[in-house]
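Reading a protein record of the kind used here takes only a little practice. To see the layout at work, look at the sequence and tokens printed below.
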Amino acid sequence: MISVVDYDMGNLGSVVKALEFLGQPAQITSDPKQVLQSDRLILPGVGAMSYAMQKLREKGLDEALAAFFAKERPFLGICLGMQLVFERSEEGQTGGLGLLPGIVRRFSDSGKLKIPHMGWNQIDDSRLTLIPEKAYFYFVHSYFVEPGDQELVAARATHGRSFTAAIQNGSILLTQFHPEKSGAAGLGLLQKWLTTG
């Protein structure tokens, strides 16, 4: 059973449609019990981290996500869903779930850099076959993850500076980009994720 976590902060429909296109049904849930019973879990998200954490706590999903992590089952965090996994964010100095070490930082606002970083961007330094080197994925974000352990970085991209585009740690995969909005490359990533781990 694949679950997509609903905490009022993401375009869940596009994730579910991408999975359905690949022949994989998924349930949308905000029930902590269903989260824990899932075989695979997707945490999407768009918006402010402080509000997202508030909603996760209100629904009891913060504890459910931590418990799911402990089971080492396949987990995919997308965009804000990636950032929430880490310890804190510069966005209002918000605390995250703290499931992996690291800080979410804002792109430097020098006036020369377009923020948010929005649109297609090329992947560099990928160490994962499901994220092809030089492939293009779709990004929408103003913040990026700086992990405490650089060995977690699975791929990078550049927007004014090099930044973490993906994290991989065992069965955990986190992407700053949106695979569900990234055409063939994104569908390929989802297809491989569904059959690995």
Remarks:
- Helices lie at 12-21, 32-37, 49-58, 61-70, 80-83, 183-194.
- The chain has a mean pLDDT of 94.
- The first strand starts at residue 2 and ends at 5.
